[in-house]
Write a structure and sequence with these properties.
Layout lengths: L15 H13 L10 E2 L2 E2 L29 H9 L7 H17 L8 E5 L6 E3 L4 E5 H6 L3 H16 L2 H22 L3 H36 L6 H17 L17 H15 L9 H8 L3 E2 L7 E3 L2 E4 L4 E4 L5 E4 L4 E5 L4 E9 L6 H5 L9 E6 L7 E7 L4 E9 L2 E9 L4 H12 L2 E2 L2 H6 L3 E7 L6 H5 L8 H8 L13 E6 L1
Parallel strand pairs: 3-5
Antiparallel strand pairs: 1-2, 4-5, 6-18, 7-8, 8-9, 9-17, 10-11, 11-12, 12-16, 13-14, 14-15, 15-16, 18-19
Length: 506
């Protein structure tokens, strides 16, 4: 929860819970994937902004280095803000710029200027714009095991740019939208328009899957030509699948392709990437750039930025805004740009927390009655006693969902906490109310817990194994599993003396 939100939750009683759930899923399950959700312009991302304009024609000037200037137009500012803004680290910036210097001449359009920006987000993601701008998150760098894997991600995004995937996809969608409007508005055949929209969605999905395979092919060819290990793409995809499974659970079987998905399943892509790499040469060819990469990211921030709020299991701390609260047991929290989102009980419950500036000394009761959820009437407003901060609560009922609402004042800000459930049983409501009552000014001890975590590079000593190295990690859930994944290890993998590994700590 990084900023103030002044708009109402745009949802009626049938839509509010799916909105909360999808918002969480897009940033936790799908956002963990480098290429697991909708295309953002020419690349892969967790957001679905409007389709951008077709890619411009190639510029004639030969550019084998990153573009010297990065024009922050409104679209780029919006994208960067959605992912925490730029992550300032001169050493890492220089490293990824140098990767780009090697990749650009090896690409299919070596005269095209490219620019790479590192974003201050813990999610694992990368995307590109037709302008040649490539974006990667520090979460992706934390997952990558070597420079060749990062080069594979960048080359994949370059593949989207050089193949002009954004323009092709935008044109396909525009044709579908035009036909739907003609059928619905001019020919008065809404059923035919809806049928065509459905067919167009399936066509776009299949088309996007083809684009991902094509970008993989271009990317692997590019990194090999630049001198990097062509098997790096498959290695990174394997980490990606394991990371997604660890954080997203096993609610869906990612090994089975979903034909409505815009991207191939991870196993599909791994298999295809290995076939492509074998066509280039046997394992062991090309530079992995492991040691130089580990040196570059030593000390890089890991996980959520405490200044923007930090979730420690069900405890949420926000030192900058000065509050803390505990979500109900079983909830998983995801801190997004505009709000904190939580999901519990296999997706049958949800929560949302945001804040607004106090308006003209309005009371909490007035704030609750102002219509947070469109189309749902709020009633039963009452003021709680015995809470650390002034708090008012209410219940809002819709056709399918019931909401427990709370307005909490902290200084000149009103925090809005919304819980949603199909059936608000007394026991469930009691757990929601306990969470509401837990909202309090952050204590010095809690603020001390909200320390920024970092990637540290450790060298294996005699007697060290994966469990011993993982035991040195702190501030993360499932430290042993996380250690194995971010270092590309299996449980039985050896840790040779002198080998360097990533560990996480303050």
């Amino acid at each position: 929860m990084r900023g103030r939100v002044s708009s109402n939750v745009s949802s009626d009683n049938a839509r509010i819970f799916p909105v909360l759930t999808r918002a969480f899923a897009a940033s936790r399950a799908g956002a963990l994937a480098w290429v697991s959700l909708a295309l953002l312009a020419a690349g892969c991302a967790t957001l679905e902004p409007p389709i951008v304009a077709p890619a411009p024609k190639p510029r004639p000037a030969a550019v084998a280095t990153p573009a010297p200037k990065f024009a922050l137009d409104p679209e780029k500012r919006r994208l960067m803000a959605a992912f925490g803004g730029e992550y300032e680290n001169p050493g890492i910036k220089a490293y990824i710029d140098n990767l780009l210097v090697k990749l650009a001449p090896a690409s299919d359009t070596p005269s095209e200027p490219y620019h790479v920006t590192l974003l201050d987000s813990p999610v694992v993601n990368a995307f590109a714009l037709p302008s040649g701008d490539i974006f990667m998150t520090r979460g992706l760098l934390a997952l990558a095991g070597d420079g060749a894997e990062v080069a594979a991600v960048m080359a994949h995004e370059i593949g989207h740019i050089t193949a002009r995937h954004a323009a092709a996809r935008a044109e396909l969608e525009r044709r579908g939208q035009l036909f739907s409007r003609v059928s619905t508005q001019l020919l008065e055949r809404p059923d035919q328009g809806q049928e065509y929209v459905a067919r167009t969605k399936l066509t776009v999905a299949r088309f996007s899957r083809q684009q991902e395979f094509e970008a993989d092919k271009i990317g692997i060819r590019t990194i090999a030509k630049a001198g990097y290990d062509p098997y790096a793409a498959a290695r990174f995809l394997d980490k990606l699948g394991r990371w997604s499974a660890l954080h997203a659970g096993t609610a869906t079987d990612s090994s089975k392709p979903d034909m409505m998905s815009t991207h191939p399943s991870t196993p599909e892509r791994i298999a295809a990437a290995i076939v492509l790499a074998k066509q280039i040469g046997a394992r062991g060819i090309g530079d992995t750039a492991r040691d130089s990469y580990l040196s570059a990211i030593d000390g890089m921030a890991y996980g959520d930025n405490p200044a923007q709020g930090l979730a420690i299991q069900t405890l949420f701390l926000h030192p900058k805004l000065g509050f803390a609260f505990k979500a109900p047991d079983g909830f998983t929290l995801e801190n997004q740009t505009a709000a904190l989102i939580g999901v519990g009980e296999a997706g049958t419950q949800a929560l949302r927390l945001d804040s607004i500036d106090e308006q003209d000394n309005e009371s909490l009761e007035q704030a609750l009655a102002s219509g947070w959820i469109e189309g749902v009437q709020t009633n039963s407003i009452e003021t709680l006693k015995g809470t650390d901060l002034p708090t008012a609560v209410a219940v809002a009922k819709g056709d399918q969902w019931t909401f427990r609402l709370a307005a909490i004042r902290l200084d000149s800000r009103i925090f809005r906490l919304i819980f949603a459930a199909h059936t608000l049983s007394p026991a469930l409501d009691a757990s929601f109310m306990a969470s509401v009552r837990s909202f309090h000014r952050i204590t010095p001890e809690e603020a001390a817990r909200a320390r920024e975590q970092h990637i540290h590079i450790a060298t294996a000593q005699p007697g060290d194994d994966a469990k011993a190295l993982a035991s040195r990690m702190s501030g993360v859930d499932d430290p042993y599993d996380v250690f194995l994944i971010i270092n590309g290890l299996e449980g039985a993998s050896p840790t040779p003396v002198g080998q360097r590994y990533k560990i996480i700590g303050p």
